[in-house]
Prior knowledge:
The complex is a heterodimer of chains A (405) and B (323). Chain A has 405 residues and is mainly alpha-helical. Helices cover 68% and strands 1% of the residues of chain A.
Amino acid sequence: MGGRECQAVLSALLVEIMENQAKSENWEKVGRPRRLNFLEFIVEKGIFFISLSAIFMVLLICVFIFKEAMPIFLGKANSADATEHIAPADMDKIPKEKLRSHLGMSPKEFAATPPENLRMILEVRAEAKAEQQDSPESTLDTTEWKYILKPFQWSGYDKPENIWQPVGNVHKYNIWPLVVGSLKVTIIALLFSVPISLLAAIYVSQLAPGKTREVIKPVIEMLAGIPSIVIGAFALLSLASFVDTWLHPTHRLNAFIAGIALGISVIPVVFSIAEDALTSVPRSFLQAALALGSSKWQAAWHVVVPAALPGIFAAVILGFGRAMGETMIVLMASGNASIMSWNFFQSTRTITATIASEMGETVFGGHHYSMLFMIGSVLFVIAFVSNLAGDFVMTRLKKRMEGNS
Amino acid sequence: MSILKEQEVARPEMDFEKSSKDTGSILCTGLTLTATLLIIAILVVIIGNIAWFGFDKFSWRFITAGLEEQMFDVERAGVLPMILGTTARVFLMTIFVLPVGVITAIYLTEYSPKHSVLTRIIRGAVNNLAGVPSIVFGLFGLGFFINFIGSNVDAIFYPGSDKVIWGKPALLWASLTLAVMTLPVVIVATEEALRAIPSGLREGSLALGATKLQTIARVVMPQAMPGILTGAILAISRAAGEVAPILFTGAAVFVPSLPKALNQEFMDLGYHVWVLTTQSPNVDKTQPLLYATVLTLLILTFSLNLVAVLIRAKIRARMRSVH
């Protein structure tokens, strides 16, 4: 802002203050700091309390994600078929509250459903139950940790396997296929995006002439502005067809497609953090290297990059966190089949896509609902830890660089 | 060490021009430049692809039609309800997030002691909020706004009513969820704008006898307006394109009317893209619609972003000239 502009603003303020003081006729007070009046005191306290809202929100997210997942953590959820069965004929004899919990309805829903509909639901259940009698697994509580974390030999399989399949009468809740799916897609995304973004960050921060930098930086920031659903649609419609023609993958939509699309959305994250880290290296480092006769790229590669290494590390960590948490791209481009395999060209299903696609089918407060919140809390912890780590590294780097400059 | 070795062999008459033109230099510059150009190429390919295929069905009629029940009819479908739904949720979100974000940024730059523990915790919380996956915000909206606040509002204010009024997905809950999600965007942008204001201006105001609050309200804030605007625009464009947080908190496949009440479900542009890829009776036939919808969303978010980037570039340039 120009000096003249500053002057205009300040002189307008001075005139106002003088006028106020002339009105109150307290001329002797001019020049002395005015005491804070009560209103200002209140407003400043208000500012303080509102600024705590970010902390408050993080705590709320933490509390409510874990609260809804609590039945799984405490072992209170039970996916086993209700052992006691309510025959449609007995409907009027049992207490209403018991009937409600048996049907898994919220009090509102229960009150809104007419009795004949309730009877119908019970009849449908009775029929389904009669058909399933032969399955011995319907009495297993699959929400126990041993089923979540260890392979189990389900009927119809010839060896113990990790399966996520929360449908039918036996809900299989093994989380490993989802974790492997998420990691697989994330690894492809990082392999694709990290080298490109780091090289681009080196170019933009060290080698590019000033004018070029001013143009390129906003252009790459534009990439961050493309909504993930648009990248997802691009991957689904065009990228998938392109890869299908050239590489002939097992499935048209697979981990590779999702990984590349995810990589596109991670590029701006890694780029901007790495660029930030590289520019935070003091100019004196670069100048010293140039003064010793090294060329621009030698200075960049041997002096600036090693100094900014922790920041580059932070960029990769934060990129990892972002890739693990991205939803719409993987939901559209990964094929969504929960197959436990490290094959990059097979359909895959990630933690995020599972939550997004299955939440609509769950019963409020049921075991499937709690289970989705449980994997959501796993996701939250992963994001929290990677953020904390990235942040920690970045703050330390900046502090060190400030000390050196 | 390699620098020293090269120095030994370098002849004294070698000038800067020559030293920056050896093979290593060309290779390295070429490699990094290629990577940079690749990123720009990706951007161009995505935009070009969407624009090329989307332009076919994109028309004035397409963005102003769609009140009837012809979502999947290639000739008659339109996206007006989706545009209005997205606008409504983003508008509400801005009302919620802007005051909180701006005030937090004011506290962080103007009031808080720079290295106090509390400041660091607030900054950590803001950074963490920025890194929470969007689907987790969706879960949070479902668990907190709908199942906790909504159900309790129903239980307290409408006891005995057998209709669910607030304890269900709704426009209000979706926009509140998005407000929590975009809080860090607003805070960071506002902070940047506040820092770009020279401290001499504040000191001048204080020296004239203004209180701190007067200084902030009359001197700092008007100067920071472009930056705050940038923050708001960035938050809006981010929120307009997000789908994951509204999956369970308010978006619906089809709503027969335009958004009217806060407790109504709504149709949404981004969510409609998802609907067209999954619920369409004939995916190949409705593909032009899908492209056109994506193009509409892209134009919406991109024009917002372009404005934000331009304002931001101006602020950064000003900051550089001041410091």
